[in-house]
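tool=predict chain=A
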Amino acid sequence: GGHAGGAGGDSEEMFGVLRQLLAGRRQLLGKFDKGPAVAPEQMHVAPPETVQQTLGELQQRALTPVLVDGKPSLRTVAHVKQDLLAQLRQQTPDGKVPAINEEDGDTIDLMGMLFDHLMKDVRPHTPAAALMAKLQVPLLRVALRDKGFFTEQEHPARQMLNTIAETGAFWLGDDEADRGLVDTMGMLVDRAVKDFDGDPKLFDSLAGDLSGHLHTVQ
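tool=predict ok
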């Protein structure tokens, strides 16, 4: 659908509110976390285009599980952020520490909170959980470009994520789950990972295909 003229401003404003909440939460956490601070002059802030490009490279890599307490578990957005900074380190001048600008950093942290929230209802070893993990990087790239991802219920990329999370919570818990649905969702997620190159229009078509399939199933 077309966006109304004022929607961008509302999204920015709403995103500002989310960032304030995040800053408050960070201050609270900061009281406990006395890690080594990096002086600003040591930081090399990656330009947004470099962040997009680097995430694009991560997107094309196979998702390897990470080890948590020695057990393989799904990647979280926090792991994606670590991978991103590790990649950026290779392009950072000697003696500098790679950094992401504050707004982009907040976007990544908000995405982490959103995924953590959605994953609470999705069982960890189900197809839906794996599909959601695959969507982390493409959706991060969408959100970095378009704050409406967080603030617009109708945002197609957001709808796709919500649909998979809801389906995962209700339908995909048992083995006799609708195989056709699992396969369709898997196919659409693979298309997002393979074909997403920064143009959010891809999600219009993916979200449309997914809701079409769900109507058929119902």
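The beta strands are 43-46, 66-68, 71-73, 97-100. Residues 121 and 169 are 5 Å apart (CA to CA).
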